[in-house]
User: Fold these one by one.
Assistant:
Number 1:
Amino acid sequence: MMAAYARRAARRLTQQDLLYESLRRAILDGDIVEGARLASSRALAEQLGMARNSVLYAYERLVEEGFVTATRHGSRVNAVTPGGGAVLPPPAARSAGAARMLARRVLELPRRGTRDGATALRPGVPALDAFPFVQWRTSLERAMRRLRADDLGYGDSAGHPALREAIAQYVRVSRGVRCQPQQVFITNGTQASLDLCARLFADHGERVWIENPGYLGARSALLAGGLQLVPVSVDAAGMAPRAADWHEAPPRLIYLTPSHQYPLGSVLSLERRLALIEHARACGAWIIEDDYDSELRHGGPPLPSIQGLADDTPVVYLGTFSKTMFPALRIGFLVVPPDVTEQVAAAIGTLERQGRVAEQTALAEFIESGRYARHLRRMRKLYEERRDGLVAAIGRHLAGMLTVSADAGGMHLSARLDAPLRDVDVSTAARVHGLHLSPLSAYCLGGPDMPRYNGFLLGYAEAPPPVADALMATLARVIRELAEGGG
């Protein structure tokens, strides 16, 4: 009996709530106009076949919220106006107005590729099938067992001390970074690091030099930070600013991917590294060194960082574990110069909150135990094999259609489209076949005097050689069909 009563009560509650919401929406949308008299509660209850009390409940809520006034002659609809007395616009106009309320810089952000199921050849995604799950799970379980009640609150805004210590030790040895643990700040990945750099090291409207073509994520973060983007061309030796650029458009920030330029893959020469440091010091600029996948260099040790070339370089060094571990980990870091460490710590303490102590503790242990270094050695060998397999497949199936650029490492390569087609058209056609081709033209900025690129960014981390061969055979068919007008 009690269960039946509860079901009837739930049904009545649903009916009266639905009636209230329907009347409220009709008044807001103008379907029931100002001054209209609502049907009597008895008449409406009979018309709808529901209890009169449910109608009374809905009417009482409308009265309480100011939509309706109850009088001796019935319930009448009030004027639905904001405080200033202006009548609300119709729904379509309100939707458009909400979109216009977004900041212009947000509306102008570059859009990422659509998530349409095309995953083959995605850049930036590591070989997740080769990740050492058992070892990582062991580190996580060990970290969970060590958690205390105090660890469940907000942690140090700079990150877990053990992880900061492990990262400082690692980048000193592997990347030549000059730092102490207090200079290391843990973030939620490179994108979060870039957002912090835009807020901490530049004021609204100041100039930031970016590589052209360059990383879309950096462009988004810096635009969202209200900064003025100045594209600087890239060649085989990396970012190539002209001498006049330093006088005509001196930067506040210089964003670089010097060890593996994104997306073209070039390496910034030592001569240009030293020149950038010298000019940045002279004009009071900061260099943001995004070292996103330098640990995965093929055919030799990772190149030393720009940050480590001198003691007092004006460099903010960015690193991430999204490429070397897995993207869902969402752990990155930045290393700041010692003379601004205290100010950065204070600012981050105001702006950010840390959590995920277990993951940070586990990662610290994973690094300190040597398992991280062993994992990287395996991944370098694996990615080199998969890179070679993709290059060979391009040679077999796409000779005369694609030309691979020199590439020293990472998980992707760039290829120039030699066929008389637009890369965006080929990319669109290839998605139907499950291929995720990132058009190089999408990474370009600037006017007609800036260089334009027509080709693709091809990720090979998830493509063993037999898979890469099949994918390139498919891509060759797509290009031929488009070239012949059959696509």
Number 2:
Amino acid sequence: MAKPAPQEQPIDEEDIDVEFETDEDELDQEGLADEDNYASLLESTDEPEEPELSAIENDADLSLEARPVPRITIHAYCSSPETGVVLQRAASDRRLTKAHVTVHMGGLAAAIGQYKHATTPNLVIVEDHSHHEELFANLLKFAEVCDPATKVMVIGKTNDVGLYRELIKQGVSEYLVSPLTPLQIIASISSIYVDPAAPPIGRSIAFVGAKGGVGSSTIAHHVGWCMSEGLEEDVTLIDLDIPFGTAGLDFNQDATQGIADALTSPERLDDVLLDRLLVKCTDHLSLFASPSVLDRDLDLDTETYESVLEIVRNMVPTVVLDVPHIWTPWTKHVLFTSDEVILTATPDLASLRNVKNIVDLVRAARPNDSPPRLVLNQVGVPKRPEIPEKDFAEATGIEPSLIIPFDAQLFGTAANNGQMVTEVAGNNKIKEGLKKLSFDVSGREPPETKNKGLLSMLGIG
């Protein structure tokens, strides 16, 4: 019997090679940088196009399963354009930035024809909508041209447990039922290449200010503190502002070593060196402080920052990143690859413009993730004209997750004492708001307060 003829039909007449690149000029999109009045900004409120499957893709459980994939080569052969589009979107996701992905049309028949004279990659994804007998016959032909070390993922339309078990028995690594979402594909690839017994990679939460002086570092430090204390979870706070970082001041720590030493020698960073460089603030909070000195010039590339952050994430469950207000390739990469992005802004025109630009850019680079969270800080400064919260949200397309009123006395006292607001303040809205934000970005529920019964109602015990 003659083998099926190859029917490869590349999307857009060429293979799709996904690269993680973003032009810096994109930040100045829609002419917003040239706007000079509040009214014109409010008119430019076009929402970025929402993914059709965003509600499914942003499912918290699925996001946790979709862990970063190692540096592998993946070839996909689709039989339907819809699956091809979903695979393209999955390939551009931050969790697959290390993988080399190409997407072809033609399904299983095209894959068989392709590998008659070529070596199969680490992973081949094939889509085939045939019935059971024909599907197994096609897979048998594919097995004749497939290297033993290559893993195979099959996409079909039959939701049958018996079929799934038989495919796994025949050596298929995973079977998925279409239609799919990008996160479903990424989670399945992760399950093949990431050891389920290995400890999970730490959750990274990046804080950045819409402009200088909006209090992003202060919010980052307080949220990190609340997570470590409220959830009793190990948190490492990394101050990435090498010359002007304030984490050491806010936590009343004098760190002579820290993040700068790790960045200058990333190849030496291991468990022992990391423990020596970290400053232990509490039982659950460690500080990777900046030296805050001006006699060291660090002009480092994105790969250096990525390698150090990856090492830290492999050692602690939560990493809080205090990102300075600069726009460089490495700061963009930190924002694009973090699990959560929190923007801090004040209710003024410059912040509004910058928030809209950054939100649009981050959402375009992270289509399978939740949009950045917005913290509106220093609201209600006496005699200062401010943009109303409703108008700020309408113009930027994002509702504030937390609004912090201006309180110079509270924050000033905490900063001067090297303490957190939650230590200085009593039971007020700022303290409770910071706690709620810390629980939200951690992806965990706050611990339930134990009911002590009648004694607690009477104020006893």
Number 3:
Amino acid sequence: MKTTHQRLGILITSAILFFSIQLLAESKNSAAETPHRIDAAQFDSANRLVRPANIDEWIFLGATVGHGYPEEGGKKFSAENPGAIQVIQMEPAAYGYLKEHKKYADGTMISLSFYNTQEQPSPAVEGVVQKDLMNFEIHIIDKKMYKDTRAFFLYETGSDVANMIPEGNVCVTCHNKEAHFDGTFTQFYPVIRDEILGRKE
């Protein structure tokens, strides 16, 4: 027959176990509510985004030809005037998080490279091929750091650092209005659209 001390010990042990389980559950819920952070972005002393050195290792998401930012009164897309080839890539750690959790981590970086089209490729082939890099920008998704929940950095030719385009810019407005998934144009990125999100848009 259990003594009073034994019963008291069992009650205390049960209480400790119960509260430990409760704390563990609360901790898991808190972790689930707090977005993960990717700290791949590097800034200089002037808070300019430093161009990552390993862009060649980033994950390819998609590409477009002649689809982008037409100037008013500019030439329309045609076989004779295909415009730029745009290549979209994502920083590998951010891509891994998206693939596992189906959402973006704060600090996610997506790059957009604009390439001229080569007019006379050799050997001569049908279609167009990439020539030299014309423009380059990085889109950072960070709901805690930026008022707009995202920021855009456009690099000038030959520069390895870029200032943030001021808040409330046309890029933010367009992304929030037209993009299909959390401010990103996944409708143009089959790697995310089909393989990760499973959407046929």
